Automatic annotation (TrEMBL):
This is DNA-binding response regulator. One of its GO terms (biological process) is regulation of DNA-templated transcription. Keywords: DNA-binding, Phosphoprotein. Residues 2-118 form the Response regulatory domain. GO terms for molecular function: DNA binding. SUPFAM superfamilies: C-terminal effector domain of the bipartite response regulators (SSF46894), CheY-like (SSF52172). Pfam families: GerE (PF00196), Response_reg (PF00072). It comes from the Bacteria. Residues 137-202 form the HTH luxR-type domain. It comes from Actibacterium pelagium. The modification 4-aspartylphosphate is found at D53.
Length: 204
């Protein structure tokens, strides 16, 4: 299999070339700019896979990816980047890219990914592509307004109405109003009971 590594960082390019060339089944070529990569695709024997650095000279993001994907030769093209976002990776895959490789990928994983893509599969590391899970709001917190949550947290910290009012930039009468609705929602009669409910529920 023949791989073209197009990246303007000499050290990274040389390291990739060294790792991939050590594999018996892989032959590599390299380029430092998009222009050089395009020239090699046009003049050399077909590449099984082209690795394009997302930020190298000449690259105009996904537009350049599309350009190389549409070139004659039918080469598979993957993006490699140290700063592209998950959204960019998703768009690249939707456009038909062979994959997306973060530069933080360990060398062994990178070699396996390259082989995988050169054989016709699509690759992107799951931990990179997986959206961070949104933290679920606590059931008790969902029943309260943001301000009531602020007041309840202050109660668990043992603060007085005066301290809470000062911290939240409100007046003491306003804090007392929040306390009243807070007690009603929690089914309690005083601040101590409210703080105990919050702690028992694991809210704070």
């Amino acid at each position: 299999m023949k791989i073209l590594i197009a990246d303007d960082h000499d050290l990274l390019r040389d390291t990739l070339t060294a790792f991939l060339s050590a594999e018996d089944s892989l032959e590599t070529a390299s380029a430092a700019t998009l222009e050089e990569a395009v020239q090699k695709i046009q003049t050399e024997s077909p590449f099984n896979l082209v690795l394009l650095d997302y930020k190298m000279p000449g690259m105009k993001g996904l537009d350049s990816l599309r350009e190389v994907l549409n070139m004659e030769g039918g080469q598979r093209v993957a993006l490699i980047s140290g700063e592209a976002t998950r959204e960019i990776a998703e768009q690249a895959l939707e456009m038909g890219a062979a994959g997306f490789i973060p530069k933080t990928l360990p060398a062994k994983s990178l070699v396996n990914a390259v082989k995988f893509m050169a054989m016709g599969e699509q690759y992107a590391p799951l931990d990179f592509m997986k959206a961070p899970e949104e933290e679920e709001a606590h059931p008790l917190a969902q029943r309260l307004t943001p301000r009531e949550n602020d007041v309840l947290k202050a109660l668990t910290e043992g603060k007085s109405n005066k301290e809470i009012a000062r911290d939240l930039g409100l007046t003491e009468p306003t804090i007392k109003l929040h306390m009243k609705t807070l007690y009603r929602k929690l089914g309690v009669n005083n601040r101590t009971q409210a703080a105990l409910v919050a702690r028992d529920e694991g809210l704070y």
